[in-house]
Amino acid sequence: MGVNGGTMTWLAFLSSAVVIVLAGTKLSRYGDQIAEFTGLGRLWIGVVLLSTATSLPEVFTTVSAGWLDAPDLAAGNLFGAGLSNMLTLGLIDLMHRQKRVWQQAALGHTLTAALAMVLTAVAAFFVLLQVNVTHVGVGLGSLIIFLLYVLGMRLVFRQEDMDRRRREQEALVEGAVAGQAAVSRRTGMRRAIIGFVLCALALLVAAPFLAWSAERIADETGTTDTFIGSSLVAITTSLPELVVAIAAVRLGAFDLAVGNLFGSNAFNMAAFLFADIAYRGGGLLDHVSATHALTALWSIIMMNIGLMGIIYRAEKRFMLIEPDSLLMIVSYVVGLWLLFR
């Protein structure tokens, strides 16, 4: 490729990265406003809205892989995203040591984390089972995972709805809101929703360009088959989740950040249904390498570390003998080494 082609590739990479950083930062701010205006809470907004918005680029990539008859690429993308999201959880906790993200997160995240682990385990089970049973061209495993996701999210919503009602009762005790304030609230709510949708669309458009340009850069520099090239592509494809999580933590919206990451892991497993619909060779999970089960199981281990870090609330801390962000990062590196082996 000539100089002009290489310049255009780098320009596409930098431009899409800038768009993702700006859109991701504003997406967290709008999500925080929606959580405040609706009273739904940061946990629910992070688990549903933010996780869905940041996972859409990965879902479209996975569906494309299924359509192109590349089931291993589709499965690797979704299972690998679980590792990347947990690495992000460790990084944001490490970057904000003065106010531990894991300990500031609500205990309600344990339900979402448990759901993500169950769905990932079921996906790994069907990868190893190779049952090869389909219904209307969709694999049994994908259907079961999607159904479990819907039921699990209903549980998360019911739990958060109880917390919302409690907060509303507390607000009623403090006093009724004036009519003028209510009008201002509706206006702010409308602006927040419009801003959130526009930022999500910007992420959806920019993320594929970022992944494409990263792969081209790795190919042009001759590092496609090296660990550096693979790391570059992996980091760029998970940049939306990373940017949104960092922006949410800077706002002090720890539940948005944690809910986004655990919610993304759950949603990614449900996305196997969409990839399975696009795949025309039968059940997608029945036609992938058993190696993906290793990625899934290691992702579950990392989610367990994050879950224990949220539950562990001891004041006095001891290095190396408790759930910690450093342990999460080390686990990610060990997982990559095992996969490359």
Word description of this protein:
This protein has helices at residues 3-38, 42-67, 71-95, 101-104, 109-129, 140-174, 179-220, 227-237, 239-250, 254-270, 272-278, 291-311, 325-340; strands at residues 134-135, 138-139. It has 341 residues and is mostly helical. The chain has a two-stranded antiparallel ribbon. A hairpin with a 2-residue loop joins strand 1 and strand 2.
**What is the total tally of β strands?**
2
- The residue fraction in helices comes out at over 70%
Overall, the morphology is globular
Low-confidence stretches: 175-180, 223-231
Summing up helix and strand content along with how strands pair, one would put the structural category as mainly alpha
Query: What portion of the residues fall into strands of 2 or more residues?
Result: under 5%
Order of helices and strands: HHHHHEEHHHHHHHH
Number of helices: 13
Distance from first to last alpha carbon = 32 Å
Question: Which properties best describe this structure?
Answer:
341 residues, globular, two-stranded antiparallel ribbon, single chain, mainly alpha
What is the strand and helix layout of this fold?
Layout: H1 3-38, H2 42-67, H3 71-95, H4 101-104, H5 109-129, E1 134-135, E2 138-139, H6 140-174, H7 179-220, H8 227-237, H9 239-250, H10 254-270, H11 272-278, H12 291-311, H13 325-340
Antiparallel strand pairs: 1-2
Helix pairs in contact: 1-2, 1-7, 1-9, 2-3, 2-7, 2-10, 2-11, 3-9, 3-10, 3-12, 3-13, 5-6, 5-10, 5-12, 6-10, 7-8, 9-10, 12-13
Task: Provide a compact summary of the structure.
The protein is mostly helical. It is built from 13 helices and two strands, in the order αααααββαααααααα.
